[in-house]
Each structure stands twice: as structure tokens, then as C-alpha cells.
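Worked problem 6 (solution included).
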Amino acid sequence: MAPSRTSSDVAAVLLRERLHHLTWAWFTLTMSTGGIALLLAVNPHRFNGLTTIGIIIFIFDLALFLLLSGLILARFHLFPGTFTQSVQHPTESLFIPTFFLSISTILSGIQEYGVPSSGPWLLVALRVLFWTYVAITFCTAVLQYHLLFTGKPLTLQSMTPAWILPIFPVMLSGTVAAVTAGSQPPHHAIPIIIAGTTFQGLGLIVSVLMYSNYIGRLMANGLPAPNTRPGMFIAVGPPSFTGLAFIGMSNAAIKVFPHTFVVGATDVSTAQVLKIVAVFVAVVLWSLSLFFFCISLLATLCGLRQMSFHLTWWSFVFPNTGFIIAMIDIGTAIESQAILWTASVATVVQVTLWLLVLVAHIRAVSKKQILWPGKDEDHDS
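Solution. The predicted structure is:
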């Protein structure tokens, strides 16, 4: 007769099985939390303790990132073959970029919260991390799209803004450059700005190419299923982050560029021209984000009663954080208090939304709605 299992044995098996379904999509939690920390760092209307709150959220994000990294490594170790499956899986593989997006928010948070109270060693470390991040995310984007092009055929009907995600991390090289370049020595800052512009532009162009498929899918097949509609907010991200990146890099250029940077254009300041162009381009890009935000919001509200929590709910947070930061940068550039106060109100709403999604996330785990066989991004593997 086989010995009966104790409750601790059953709990261990249950925990191990749930760990089997901890997918890359869990890093949507850390990328969103890091985004909130960055949003609080740049909020224009400040009060005593706001920076402290931002630091606490940033440290919380670091702890979550280390915890999730350890857990997903444990998944790959305990269940051989799951790493390869996750890379080749048509759904889970799309969320691999959220790991790198989490790193981008951490690098930005280090600049905002760490550099002001640290020595020059941290600037050197950030510089090394920036170039490492650029190299890895570019190679990862190329490899991921190669796998998507050569793997299981995808149909236009299945198209979602998540198809943009593989290019997202290298695109945010521009955002990281915007945050970090201004504190670097000029001979290091200028290459960072050039690289940031290069890859931010690449990400925007690829995203625009994807938008044509996305709009065509919506016109031909209608709105996606209610449970996946939060993912529609991903489309808000590329124009927003590009706008804030261009303004941020132009601000850094004013600090570090020589008067003439482009050969043959000696009569005007290169950096000042960049700033003017960056602000107006950012306004245009922000309007595109506003369009996608309104479309996504209306679609979500129409399907709200049919929705249950999934990790795509974090799309309510991260892309819209970039939307608000872009608004802050535009308002600062043109000295519009109306825009800045609107952004501050939106910040309060965004932090509240982050807390609500976090509570819903914890509740979903406890109710076995996620992290359970058949209910995660690896469900059909």
C-alpha cells in the first residue's frame, strides 16, 4: 500500500507545479512598478516625502525583479526544456522583452534616485550598463523577430499590439539615454545621445509598420476578446516614449553639444535647433498616443464586465506612464501650467491604478486564476 501524502508534501507539489507556469509575462509587474517610480521622480508638483515614496517603490521594484528572476531561473532548472519552449512559444515568447523593459526602468531609476547621492563611480557603471543594454536588446529584437518570421505562421486576425514588444526594449535605449546622458561627461554623453536617437527611431519605425497591421486587423475583425483588450494600451507606448526621449535627449544636448555639431551648419546652435524640433515632434507623437489611448479605453470599458484578471492588465500601467511623462516634458518645455497640472492629476490616477492592478494580481494568484495549469501564457505548449 502506498504511503499517504502529508499536507506538506501536497503543498510542495502544488508549489512546484505552480512554479512551472511562472512565465516571462510576470515581468510586466516589474516594468510597470519601475515606471511608477520614474513617474514620481519627474512629477512637476512635488511635496515633502514624494521623493521618499519614489525611492521606496524603486527599492520594491528591485526586490521584485530579483525575486522573479530567481523564480524563473528555478522554473528553467526544475523543468528542463522549458526555457527553449518559452523562447519558441508564440505567446509566451512575446513577453520576453518585458524582462529587458524592467531593466530599462531600473537603469532610469538608478539615475534619478542613485546618482544624486552617489559618487562618480555610479556614472561609469551606468555608462557600461547602457551600452551593454543596447547591444543585448538589439540582438534580442533581431533574434525574436527572426523566430517569429520562421516559426508557426501567425494570422492577421491574431494580431495584437504585443507584436510590437520585441522592438520595445531597444527602442527604450532612447528613453534611458534621455535620462542618463545629461549627467555624463560630454565625450561620453554625445555617443549615448546618438545611440539613443538611432534606436528610438528604429523602434518607432518598426512600431508604425506594425500599426498598419493592427488598424487593418481592427477594421477587418473588430475588437479583440475582452480579456485581451488591456493589451491594446501597448500601442500607446511607442509614440509616448519616443516623444519624451527626443525632448530628454535634446535637453542633454544643450548641456553637452558644442555650438556646431553638424558640419556645414555653423550659423545656429545645433542643440537649440534639436530642442525646438524635438518639442514639436513630441507634440505630434503624443497626439498619436492620445488616439490609441482613447480607442483602447473605450474598447476596455465596453468589455469591462466580461473581463477577468490576466497579466496583460499591467498594460494599463506601463504604456500610460510614458504617456504621462511625455505630457510632463511637453508642458515643461512650453511652460504650460494647464498641461503640467493635468499630468499631475493623471499621475495620481496612475498610481491608484497601479495599486488596484497590484491588488487584483495578488487576488488572482490566491484564487488560482493565474499561475495555474492552462491559465498562463504557456497554456498551449
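Discussion: The two ends are 35 Å apart (CA to CA).
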